[in-house]
Design brief:
single chain, 117 residues, mainly beta, Metal Binding Protein, Guanine Nucleotide Exchange Factor, Chain A, five-stranded antiparallel beta sheet, three-stranded antiparallel beta sheet, 7% helix, globular, binds zinc ion
C-alpha cells in the first residue's frame, strides 16, 4: 500500500477522487458495461476514500440490478467511480485510469470474467 493522499481526476479536472492508499490489485472486467467504459477498477473500502466529488459534478448510470451508480464527469464524460446504493455496503470502485499511470503500473492487474457470470 502506498501511504498519503493519492489524487485522481477526470480529464478536465472537475471531478477529483482522493484515496488514502492505492490497492495492491486492480481489476479489468469484461462485462458488457466495463468493456465499453474501458476502465480498470481499484476496489477500496470506504474508509480509504478520503474525498469524493460533489454529486452535482457528476451524472450517474445504473443497470442490471441497479445496485451501484456509475458516475462520470458532467463536463468531459470520464468515468471516475461507482458507489453502492445500499447503505451498508462498504466497498467502492474507483476507475484506476484517472490516477498516475506509474502508480497504477505498480498494482497487479487481475482479470474478472464478468461477461460469463
Ligand atoms: Zn471532467
Amino acid at each position: 500500500m502506498t501511504e498519503s493522499a493519492i489524487r485522481g481526476t477526470c480529464h478536465c479536472g472537475t471531478v477529483e477522487v482522493v484515496l488514502g492508499a492505492f490497492p495492491p490489485t486492480i481489476t479489468e472486467c469484461n462485462c458488457s458495461l466495463c468493456r465499453r467504459y474501458g476502465v480498470l477498477w481499484a476496489y477500496v473500502e470506504a474508509d480509504q476514500v478520503l474525498e469524493l466529488p460533489d454529486p452535482g459534478l457528476t451524472d450517474a448510470y445504473a443497470w442490471n440490478g441497479r445496485n451501484v451508480d456509475f458516475l462520470r464527469c458532467r463536463d468531459c464524460g470520464c468515468i471516475t467511480h461507482w458507489v453502492p446504493r445500499k447503505k451498508g455496503r462498504t466497498l467502492r470502485g474507483i476507475n484506476a485510469r484517472i490516477f498516475d499511470p506509474e502508480l497504477v503500473a505498480q498494482s497487479k492487474r487481475i482479470f474478472r470474467d464478468g461477461a460469463n457470470k
